[in-house]
Design a protein that fits this description.
Blueprint: E1 5-9, H1 13-28, E2 33-37, H2 41-44, H3 50-53, H4 61-68, E3 74-78, E4 90-95, E5 103-107, H5 110-121, E6 132-134, H6 138-147, E7 152-154, H7 160-169, E8 174-178, H8 179-184, E9 192-194, E10 207-212, H9 216-223, H10 228-243, E11 252-259, E12 262-270, E13 277-285, H11 295-319
Parallel strand pairs: 1-2, 1-3, 6-7, 6-8
Antiparallel strand pairs: 3-10, 4-10, 5-8, 5-9, 11-12, 12-13
Length: about 325
């Protein structure tokens, strides 16, 4: 490790905030570091929908390359953006304590919220009002269309600030964001509500720190940042995703939580149009980590046997034209 640890980050406001948090936490542990800004493919192309880019790790590949070429010693990522299979030669060094995992809806006018409430409270019978909602996430799109099948979904790309501006300037009724992203940089609008019914992306709200496998000094320096409970829950969620062979183009959701030695896990997969759904909900008493560490894999296999495999085949057929 160099005298000053070089922390690689994308240059969006949120990414820099996350990297600065890691820098500050390392400083508390007596480790000097500096930020190195790197553009990702996902930051350069702000038009193509993420699912259409068909590239896993669209936000991480440039940082992976910088790590492996030793331009940086550490990279900081929103964990939900990291492929379940890390690039060869790169290892997870730490997972920071999770922030909010919730998705939120930022709306243009109060009338759309009244429409949603009316729809929810009557099971859809009292309101068929049309609305246009923006998101680049196939997971959010599928869950929204499952709940509000008469709505239209528009693609929304860019960093947090860019997306908020696009919503303000558009004729859309609103857009879906991750709460953690907006709250971390203090830009969550007042005209927003939590979507408690929407299951998040695996590891949403968590920050992952990675470094080269061979760099024992960097691994040791970052280990003090690791939150064991978050790391375990994120692993379970990502195992669920990996077993279902999901990526940016697959509407897969997962949430693992630990309370009082009890693990609760919820997972789901939807068809792209939101019409088909397979879900699972488990509660497990934790005797030790060995009793729960395979929960994601086991739940994925169970969901495959109960409708999930058919949904995945439908998604593959659509992808193959």
């Amino acid at each position: 490790m160099s005298t000053v640890l070089k922390i690689g980050t994308r240059d969006s406001q949120l990414a820099v905030w996350q990297a600065a948090l890691v820098k500050d936490e390392l400083a508390k542990a007596g480790v000097d570091s500096e930020l190195v800004y790197i553009k990702s493919d996902g930051d350069i192309d702000l038009v193509t929908p993420l699912y259409a880019m068909n590239v896993q790790g669209v936000f991480t590949k440039a940082l992976d390359a910088a790590l492996l070429s030793k331009r940086i010693d550490v990279a900081v990522h929103s964990m939900k953006d990291v492929p379940t299979q890390l690039a060869q030669g790169i290892a997870q060094a730490a997972v920071l304590k999770r922030a909010s995992y919730t998705d939120i809806f930022v709306y243009k006018d109060e009338s759309v919220i009244n429409t949603l409430h009316l729809y929810d409270n009557t099971g859809g019978f009292m309101s068929q009002a049309f609305a246009t909602i923006a998101t680049s996430s196939v997971r959010r799109k599928a869950q929204w269309l499952h709940r509000y099948p008469n709505h239209s979904i528009e693609n929304l790309r860019g960093n947090v600030n860019t997306r908020l501006r696009k919503v303000e300037e558009s004729n859309w009724d609103g857009a879906i964001f991750a709460a953690a992203g907006l709250e971390r940089i203090n830009v969550r609008p007042k005209n927003s509500i939590d979507l408690q019914w929407m299951l998040p992306a695996p590891a949403q709200g968590a920050i992952m720190v990675v470094c080269r496998e061979e760099d024992a000094d960097a691994m040791q320096a970052c280990a003090v940042l690791n939150d064991a409970a978050t790391a375990l829950c994120a692993k379970i969620e990502r195992d669920f995703l990996k077993t279902l062979m999901g990526g940016c183009s697959t509407p897969i959701s997962a949430l693992a939580q630990i309370h009082d030695n009890t693990l609760t896990f919820k997972g789901s997969i939807f068809s792209l149009d939101g019409k088909q759904k397979a879900a699972i909900d488990k509660t497990i008493v934790i005797e030790n980590n060995l009793t729960v560490e395979n929960t994601g894999i086991n739940c994925a296999n169970e969901i495959l046997q109960n409708g999930g495999a058919a949904i995945i085949q439908t998604i593959r057929n659509a992808a193959n034209g």
